[in-house]
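re: ur question from earlier - yeah i can do the single chain one, its not a big deal. heres the input i used so u can compare w yours
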Amino acid sequence: MNRRFDIGPFVLALGALLLLVGLFLAWYGEFSAWDAFELTDIVLAALAVASVVGAVGLLTPDVDYLDKRVLPWLVGAAFVLVAAQLLDPPPDAAEQELGTGAWLSLAGVILMVVGTVLSLSKVSFAVAVEGRDRRRRVAAVDHRPPPTETGAPVARSSSSLLHPRTEEPEAGETS
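and the output i got, formated as tokens:
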């Protein structure tokens, strides 16, 4: 029995959780995302939560609250926001060095992109679950005629489907 797991939603959810955790860690010096940004931190948190909801919807269709066609737009927006904040930091943190939160958030967004691509391309891995085989093995039945022991050729049958033999009348019989 083979069981298939879509790996994309798991990677997407992991990346979204890394993005959420990264928002609470230091982005610029001692500033976290909540300290350094005005609105970007709230938008990134909302995009991460929506991505987790989308990943759960991909795993269990009964809990599909988010259309999967929206997912690439959410992940793309999160990627653009994180990249923009890394390339152009806010004025208060312009002189600060990038911290752990920034790099963790970037890794999370990259994982979100990879997870979305894997989800929409239907990449999955299969796990084979096999129990003990308790069936008795039986040799295949052989329908060939037994070989001759003397090595002499086997006589042909008296009738053939393609060329049936016709009985020739004996010398005294008339038809």
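Residues 2-128 form one domain. not sure if urs matches, ping me
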